[in-house]
Amino acid sequence: MTKRAVILLSGGLDSTTALAIAKERGFECYTMSFNYGQRTVAELEAAKAVSAEYGAVKHIEVNLDMSEIGGSALTDHSIEVPVGEALQQEEVIPVTYVPARNTVFLSIALGWAEVLEAQHIFVGVNAVDYSGYPDCRPEFIAAFEQMTNLATKAGVEGRQIHIEAPLIDMTKAQIIAKGVALGVDYAITVSCYKADDKGRACGECDSCLLRKQGFEQQGFKDPTLYQ
To answer: Is 3.40.50.620 the CATH number for 4-218?
Structure first.
């Protein structure tokens, strides 16, 4: 029987590595991205490129404008994207947190997984290197999986759906090392919170700093295109 998985794919470093891991584990991959009103639409083009690179059976882009509710520097242009806070490891939830984003994304991925009869959903969340996002914690993933199997026809009928978060306990450097070992081309990924229309990174936002630090710690050449 074919093993199918839905992969939440932003076009960034983490989700691309999660896709590579799913492919390594023998899954037939279906990728899903969200146009949710984020500042960086170049990541959507990156997601399409990554999906094609990995031979996903199908890639879909869901339009869901979370900028209507705001509350995040990633969806509200009146809130400045922070610079340099990630490396300080402060115990605060940053303004780049998008309220309920992973809950919403996983819920929609769950719907597609049911339709596809896929029993696995991969998400590239990470709780080790700084994000401070409550929806990137192991407790959230475990709770969502429990809810998944209570709320779905598949779960009730005994076909358990699993939420796979293979990067959750890894540092950014470890994630990069895993991806490089799997042959990931990180040059086609976009992680920057303020990337331009061509996907070139700012090199200053928290996401850029963590990405750069990860390549430096592993001693790998950073293939990121910068502005």
So the answer is: yes
- Using alpha carbons, list the distances in angstroms from residue 11 to 80, 117, 208: 22, 24, 14
Q: At what angle do helices 101-116 and 138-151 cross, to 10 degrees?
A: 40
pLDDT of residue 87: 57
Whole-structure pTM value: 0.95
pLDDT at 89 over 90: no
DSSP state of 27: P
| 168 three-state secondary structure | coil
Report the percentage of the chain scoring pLDDT > 70: 95
153: its two tokens: 């026809």
User: According to DSSP H, which parts of the chain are helical?
Assistant: 13-24, 42-53, 101-116, 138-151, 153-156, 172-181, 206-218
Identify the residue whose tokens are 């950014």. 172
List, for residues 23-39, the tens digit of each pLDDT value: 999 999 999 999 999 98
Looking only at the bridges linking them, the beta strands covering 120-122 and 58-63 are unpaired
Cα(5)–Cα(8) distance, integer angstroms: 10
